[in-house]
Design brief:
Blueprint: E1 18-21, E2 24-27, H1 32-41, H2 48-58, H3 61-69, H4 74-88, H5 93-97
Antiparallel strand pairs: 1-2
Helix pairs in contact: 1-2, 2-4
Amino acid sequence: MSKIIDITNKLAFEDNPRLKIKDTELEIDATAENMLKVMGLVSDRPTAKDVEELCKIIFTDDSKEKLSKMKLSFSDYQKVVMAAVELASGNDDADKNSGE
C-alpha cells in the first residue's frame, strides 16, 4: 500500500489579490499556472508586446474590461500591469507604493 500525506492545511486557499485604482478594483488571476507564464515574460525592460501579453494573463476577464474602459496612457497602463505582477508574485512593493 502506498503512503498518503495530506498537505491540505499547509496550503493557502486565498482569494485572488486586487489592485485598486480610484473606485475600481482589478482582480488578479494569481494561479500558479498563470504566474509561471508571467515569470517567463517579466524582464527589466518589457516591450509593449510583453506588457499586453502580461495583461492578458494576469487579469481576470472582468478586470481587463474595467482596465480598458479607463483609457490610460501607455505609461500608466504599464505601471498597472507591472504592479499587478508584483502583487501576484508576493512582492509587497505594490502596498508601499499605494501609501497604505
